[in-house]
Structures are given as structure tokens and as C-alpha cells.
Amino acid sequence: MRKTTGLALAFVALAGAVGTTAYAENNASARMREGTMMRLDKAMKDSNGTISFDQFSDAMNARLKKLVADNGGKLTVAQLADALEKARFEEMAKRIVARYDTKGDGTLTTDDITGREKKVFAMLDRNNDGKIERNELPKNGRMGRHRQWDGGDDSMQ
């Protein structure tokens, strides 16, 4: 491979990686803006169409201010990162429980997990012989369109 071709491919790969990261950040920013607008709309509805600075401030950063207050008035990077990570994993856990919970009681049991496994197994066992053969496995190694644990479109639900 010529050096210029190699450099061009490397640039394309780098641009793709940066673009993917930028898309993810833009998507997260859009969700944050949407959440902020929803909180401001709610505050305005609760106050007959206008809000004071204090109401605006509460709507904007109530959770962040609570974290600061819960940590003695100061919040370190590590404390904020821990809180963000906990919130992220709690959301992930909610999606997992919702996906597996057959009784709708908000809990996860071994029966729920086994039931889900049986459902997926039955979908993969295309010839219904009680065994999954290599040619019955998805070609791309993914079971449905969802990313693992993302709560996205799951064609096996």
C-alpha cells in the first residue's frame, strides 16, 4: 500500500471515530437541552406562565445543587463522577429489569431470567430440534438490533 493511501485511510478512520464521538456528545447534549426545556416548561405552567430567577435556578440545576449540598457544600470531580456513574448504572438497571421482569413488579428473579433465556433460545433454534447449531446463530454475533443492555429496539422481546 502506498504511503499516501495509508495516510488517507488513517485519516478516514480518525474522522469516523471523532464523528462518532461528536454524534454521541451532540445526542447527549440534545437530551440535556430537552430535559432542561421540559423542566422550564413545567416551572412556567406551575407559575402561570412566568418564573422568577429562583424558580429558573431550581429548574436548571436542582440535582447538581443537591449533590453539592449532600457533600458539605463542595463537590469534587471524583464525587461528581461517582454520582454520574451511579445514575447511569441505575438507568441501565431499570432497563434490564424492565426487559426481563415478566410479572411487572419491578423485581428480577431467576424465573424471569430463565424465561427470557427460553424465549431467546426458541428464537435461535430455527429448526426446533432443541439445539442451536452454528448456522442458526446470527451472522453478526448480535441477538437483535439492540446494543447490550441499552434498552433500545430489541426484536427478541
Describe this structure as you would to a colleague.
With 157 residues, this protein is mainly α. It folds into two domains: 75 residues, no CATH class; 77 residues, no CATH class. α1 packs across α2. The longest helix is centred in the first third of the chain and has 44 residues. The two termini are 46 Å apart. 0% of the residues are buried. The C terminus is likely disordered. One of its GO terms (molecular function) is calcium ion binding.
* N-to-C order of helices and strands: HHHH
- Sheet-strand content, in percent, reads under 5%
Kindly give the count of domains. Answer: 2
Tell me the structural class: mainly alpha
Q: Identify the quaternary structure here.
A: single chain
Q: What kind of sheet is the major sheet? A: none
Shape: elongated
Rg is 23 Å
Classify the helix fraction into a percent range: 55-70%
Residue windows where pLDDT falls under 50 for at least 5 positions: 5-11, 20-25, 145-157
Please give the structural blueprint:
Elements: H1 3-46, H2 53-70, H3 77-100, H4 110-124
Looking at this protein, list some descriptive labels.
157 residues, mainly alpha, disordered C terminus
Question: How would you summarize this macromolecular structure in one to three sentences?
Answer:
This protein is mainly alpha-helical and 157 residues long.
